[in-house]
Give the backbone structure.
Amino acid sequence: MVGAMKLLLLTFMLTVSVNCMADEFHNSGGITDTGRRELLWQAVNAVDWMQTRTIATDERWYEVNPILGKHPTLAEVNTYFVASALFHTSVSHYLSRKHARMYQNATTVVGIGFVLNNHIKGIRLTVRYWYPANHFSLRSISLSKMQPQV
């Protein structure tokens, strides 16, 4: 029952979020400053998401976000970041332009702070994916050539 409620909530948030972005694009004839700021925040959020996935799969690190807890699962991390991306888009859409600008600027600066703090601690951006060829091995790509300093 809890899984069905989460799926229903996620579906609702996705519908509202996509509607918000489509509405803004259609009404303005193109992407606006609010849309550009939203894309910037989404990019920062994606980097934080990948770093948090690294934290979740590496015992050396622990998460400081109280919503996720110290050692979240990958499913918890993915759910949190998808929900936050959809929530952020919706809030940005429904705020006035002035308040949306303040909200987006503040959340982007905070997000960049989290990403830089993780990087300083040595948490690198690692993307793990399933290789879709005939064999299903888990592969890892490190987007940073720097090694943690010991």
